[in-house]
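Appendix B. One record, verbatim.
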Amino acid sequence: MNKMFNSNTGMALWITSFAIISRLIPHPYNFSPFGAIALFGAAFYGHKWMAIALPCLTAWISGVILNNIIYTNLFKEFTWFDHNIFWQSLAYIATTLIGFILFNSGTSWTRIVAGALSSSILFFVLTNFGYWYSGLFYPMTFTGLITCYLSAVPFVQSTLLGDLVYSLAMFGAYGYIRSSIMVKQTVK
């Protein structure tokens, strides 16, 4: 078996790579793997910097690909940074930090679901504040802020489903693969 796949971090990176690739196939708005990647990395990556950097970096790279190939009608020229990537990254960093706390003493389905819910809430609060704060879409007033949050409510379901589905799939795949490897090693 591949040496990288035998290590916890290596196996986690393989699982993460499938989640990242899924971002590039058609999906509903806000149904993405990045909150789950942040939680998963907090639980299983050997280096904390990797857990913090990977969801931010992969969200940015996939954004560059999607914005310049799929969503070209939204951007007049090649776009390296969409106006809200800072706020998205802030949400993923906060989610990773929550993951460090949640999974400090191990993982459980309850903690995974709590992490996914926290991720969705953080993403909603931070990114919509960012949309409002940019001044591009809503007036810089309290009413504008409330309007921004209310306008985002239809997307909450996709964010929550994405965080739950990807988190359960990634943690489940990791547990299944780990137990399969352990069974194979004890049979030898």
